[in-house]
Amino acid sequence: MQLLSVIFVGLFIGAWAATVQPPPLIQTLSAGGDIGPEFKLDQAGQDKGSLLEDAQFWRKAGLKQLKKIINQAKSAKENSYQRKAKNIIIFIGDGMGLSTISAGRIYKGQYLKHGHGEEETLSFDDFPYTGLAKTYNVDKQVPDSAGTATAIFTGAKSDYGAIGMDTTRSKVNVSQGRLESIMDWAQSEGKRTGVVTTTRITHATPAATYARIYHRDWECDTEVPKESVGIHADIARQLVENEPGNKLNVILGGGLSPMGALNQSEVRTVRFEGSTETICQRGDQRNLAEEWLQRHANDSLPASLVKTREDLLKVNVKEVDHLMGLFRNNHITYSIAREEGEPSLQEMTETAIGVLERGSQSAGYVLMVEGGRIDQGHHQNYARAALHEVYELDLAVQAALKMTDSDETLILVTADHSHSVTFNGYPKRGSDILGAANLDKPKDPMVYETITYANGPGYYDHLANGTRSENSSNVWMPLKQFSQQEMESPTYRHMATLALKDETHGGEDVIVFASGPGSSLVRGAFEQNYLAYVMSYAGCMGPAKNFDDSCKHRSIHEQEHGNHVGSSAAALTLQIPSLLALLVASTL
Q1: Which amino acids are annotated catalytic?
Q2: Tell me: the pLDDT tens digits for 186-216?
Q3: Rounded to an integer, what distance in angstroms lies between the CA atom of residue 55 and that of residue 196?
Q4: Relative orientation angle of helices 145-154 and 530-539, to the nearest 10 degrees
Q5: Global pTM?
Q6: Residue 276's closest CA among 292, 294, 254?
Q7: Exposed, middle or buried: residue 35 (CB in 10 Å: 0-12, 13-18, 19+)?
Q8: Alpha-carbon span 373 to 98, nearest angstrom
Q9: Distance (Å, whole) CA 515 – CA 130
Q10: Are 255 and 326 in contact (CB under 8 A)?
């Protein structure tokens, strides 16, 4: 009987193995519909080199996504996608992943003492459209800011470290892989343009709006490697010498040092750490800020170069056509420890919009605003500093909403990538977002923080070292060993579970918030480079301008509206003498 049972079981297993086949490598490709990958990789190769993901490749992918979204809108009998934006403002919260947004929202509520914190809202929470952007670089699963900013501003994904160049870039050929950005597109249409950041103006995200260079680190001439000297101009030079940088109407941020305008008497009250706190200096002795000013010496309206908050706020925005503001040698200080003379991101945004806005006679403008120090706070596990930068960005978005017309301005708020920060545990409602997660659980083996990091320098700060008792298996220092003053310091690091000098980015999708004309094009999950095509189509500029006839129809409508206004004005002018005669007669 046992022998029969063994034979039966063996036959059953054999039959199961014969009928249940292992799944193929990719089983998501569908014969019909849009289910499956947005584009097929070479099935024969599956390796990176099997398909060249260059500018042409990503343009096809971006236009395909645009077509898909428009077709979905047509199927639902929607036509809001056809609305056109005279102005475009894109806010980048560098490193502002979804965990950071959620924690930042609570931090805002608790900082302002609005209640528990969880019920707080950010200024962009009420935007009518949202989507998810896939952030990977061509060569990296988890990206950096250079490759992601290049994707957002040029419409082509690229390699880790690349600025304004696709994956065919070359250290010895400056023309290979060059890309145009939204600033090029806007300037070609006569739009005014501007860049605002809390980082160096030559840092990765702002640089991707105007520079084309092999590597993001080449901010000064001293950083360009020998093999590329005389071929690639450093990023600071490109801002002053080349289009579209030298045509920007507004340039506001840090970075006096790469521009050759070092402030020798600069004060640093709080000592923050990390690789980003060091900055290159020029070796060619050029003062590019002064050169920029000289290049605009013959403009019809005077250009202005400012270096303090006081001078920025004195700028008569309607009488200045080109404004450069450089407020620190390196990045602008974290807002939680702002130094005297530094403007806020809100103040820079308000000034930028004031300079760019020129009313009904203008073709409009494109403005990029970056809250860049969210990212750098996370890199050093400075959770308090990072979350305060979210609040800083929120105030800037709020200011933009107040200063712009929602019928003619597309506003996008997004991140370039996420971070390896976690919002965890089971803290009670209203618990300090920067405090302990489990104070109500005395049986837990240790008290831990609600905000922790997968990696970073906070590992060293929280390692028990000599404080661990002999019988304890816990390698972490008890949280109670830190004083309240230490934990509330802007340089306090939250715990990280893997020791790294700099915490890493996170690879998950980032959220995109959209409001205004063209905002309905932001929906679902999409490749990050698609955002460039949203701005192109909505702003009637660049590669998607002639995707359909909607931009032509807008032009005809605007011309007819202009003619109508002109005719009305002329008719009123002719009627004025008659009206005056009647007025005189009635008084006699």
Answers
A1: 145
A2: 999 999 999 999 999 999 999 999 999 999 9
A3: 26
A4: 30
A5: 0.89
A6: 254
A7: exposed
A8: 16
A9: 9
A10: yes
